[in-house]
Structures are given as structure tokens and as C-alpha cells.
Design brief:
By secondary structure, this protein is of the alpha+beta class. It contains 6 helices and 4 strands, in the order H-H-E-E-H-H-H-E-E-H.
Amino acid sequence: MPTLEELAEQEERLQFDRFDDDVAWALGVQLRDAAAARGLPVAIELRRNGRAVFHAALPGSAPDNDAWLLRKARVVDRYEQASYRVGEAARQAGSTFEEQSRLDPDRYAAHGGAFPVRVRGTGVVGTAAVSGLPQVEDHEFMVEQLGIFLSR
């Protein structure tokens, strides 16, 4: 499991030079293709400026995954950090996200899988999220795929 320092480093390293609908679509297709190649039962969503610009639900995913995508994305929107990092910070403080934030757990989930889409010189402009695996695996899949995408 990554440390809080490693989680912060991931967010610093995995930034975009630009992020428009075409970039979102290309990233979404890559995420979908990588998940399909591995037979992962996930749903994927990319959001830009508060609206969904890519969504895919692979075989084995469930309608609940869509709700998880939105709940995790709301955490990223509010804290401008990966959903896993926000939850892990609470756990390392000896608490839970729900206790610390006092936010409605039906609307916010600090579980792994949603990552801030940060544009250099601009800040967070959206989210990239996956749901369907255990939270650490959701997070690691997203970090891996963002690294591949951004290295091109």
C-alpha cells in the first residue's frame, strides 16, 4: 500500500499539459481497453468541468459501480486529491473519512479509484475514475494507466 507521501508524489507526477474532450476520450478508450484485456469487471468515467465526457461499463460491473464512480469523483472535486489519498489520510489519523468530514456517505466515498485530472498551470479540471475492484487495486490501475498515457 502506498504511503501518503507516495500518493502525493503520484498526483504531482501525473499531470496533464492539456485536458479537453478529445484527450478525455483517448484516455477513456485506453482505460477501457486495458481493463477489457485483463477481464476486469469495472466501470470507468472521466469528468471534465463537472460533466461526464467518457463512460464505459465492462462485463461483470454492476449498476452500483456508477454510484461509486460519482461518490468518489465528488471527493476528488471537493479535496482536489485522489479519493484513496483522502481516505488513507483519515485512516492514518486514526479515524475514518466519514467521521472527519461529516459529509453524507451516500454522496461522498473516499475509496480508491478516482484521481484528479490536474493541468499544469491551471489546477484540477476533472476526474478520472474506475470502480469494481478492491479500492487499492482501483487506485493502482488508475495510476498505472495514467502513467502510460502521459508518457506518450
